[in-house]
Structures are given as C-alpha cells and as structure tokens.
Predict the structure of Cytochrome c oxidase subunit IIa family protein.
Amino acid sequence: MTQNKNVEVERKEKRSDSSKVGVAAIKYITYLIIFFGILWFLINYVFGQLL
C-alpha cells in the first residue's frame, strides 16, 4: 500500500538590506569620530598642560 502525500516546499532567499548596512556604518563611523575627538582633546589640553 503506497501513500501519496502532497508536500509543499518553500524556498526563502535571505536578502541583505543595504540600508541597514549603511545605517550601521554611519553609526559606527560616528562613534569613531567622537572617540578620536575626545582622545585629541585629552592629548592636547589635559596632557599638554602637564608636559
């Protein structure tokens, strides 16, 4: 006795959303600019007064 079953196969493609990548890149570049700005301030004004 054979059983015939209907099986539906769904194929989903993973899409990379380029706008999310762009937003993340801008966010982390902003973090780096702020970090280096604070570092520059510390080197020039705080440690510069000590030397």
Observations:
- The two ends are 92 Å apart (CA to CA).
